[in-house]
Amino acid sequence: MQKFHDRTTQRFQEYDERLQEKRQICKDKCDKEIQKIILKDKLEKELMDKFSTLDTDIQSDAIPTCICEKSLADKTSIL
Length: 79
Known about the structure:
- The chain is an all-alpha fold.
- It has a domain at 1-54.
- Helix content is 81%, strand content 0%.
- The protein contains 2 helices and no strands.
- It has helices at 2-53, 67-78.
- The longest helix has 52 residues, at 2-53.
- This is Rifin.
- InterPro entries: VSA_Rifin.
């Protein structure tokens, strides 16, 4: 009977050790994912701040036209 008790106690200890290891692995994985999410949110916030400071009022004449389009327009106006 003592043998049975010793083996059972040993098995429970082994089970408890495996359980603790798995919990630690899951905790580390979860912490890593949380850090990724925090970093992503931080970068997203910084980008939104930078984009909000950009001037969004762009005039159509401020955008340069392609040289090919310009030369084509010049050629058609000459004809």
